[in-house]
TrEMBL record:
Pfam family, one: P16-Arc
GO cellular component entries: Arp2/3 protein complex
Main location: cytoplasm
Listed GO biological process terms: Arp2/3 complex-mediated actin nucleation; regulation of actin filament polymerization
Protein name, per record: Actin-related protein 2/3 complex subunit 5
Location relative to the cell: Cytoplasm, Cytoskeleton
Known role: Functions as component of the Arp2/3 complex which is involved in regulation of actin polymerization and together with an activating nucleation-promoting factor (NPF) mediates the formation of branched actin networks. Arp2/3 complex plays a critical role in the control of cell morphogenesis via the modulation of cell polarity development.
Length: 133
């Protein structure tokens, strides 16, 4: 990992990214408290930086939103198709946790997403090693 001395703006950029993630997290928390049947999944792409803090912060927000989804088909009406591959990456991250409720929810969403987006979505998310979640 590069030192912050080599990239003087790195700490400022990291703070800005974390602030943005935090703001989206608060927005999703507010929707969850309103008991929206399918809260909107965050629409920020996976971090291009291989930075664990950003990746973990994204995962926490997406995980909370995914676990609150009750109507999977309804969720797809509010999710732009350009985010299907990113959602698939987060589903595989959720499956990798080994947590039973998380895996059950991820498999439920995975089934619907594969029907909707096709097997290409699975292959693209597995083959993309640049954008990690």
């Amino acid at each position: 990992m590069a030192s912050s001395a080599a990239y003087p703006d790195a700490d400022e950029n990291l703070e800005a990214i974390i602030t943005r993630i935090d703001q989206k997290s608060h927005k999703i928390e507010a929707l969850l408290k309103q008991q929206v049947p399918y809260p909107p999944l965050p629409t920020f792409p996976p971090p291009l930086l291989a930075h664990r803090i950003i990746s973990s912060a994204n995962w926490i927000v997406v995980h909370r939103a995914m676990m609150a989804i009750r109507d999977v088909e309804g969720m797809f009406t509010s999710l732009d198709p350009e985010y299907y591959d990113i959602l698939m990456k987060y589903l595989y991250r959720g499956l990798s946790t080994g947590d039973r409720p998380t895996c059950d929810q991820c498999l439920k969403i995975h089934e619907q997403l594969t029907e909707k987006a096709g097997l290409g979505c699975v292959l693209r998310s597995l083959a993309d090693t640049v954008n990690t979640v």
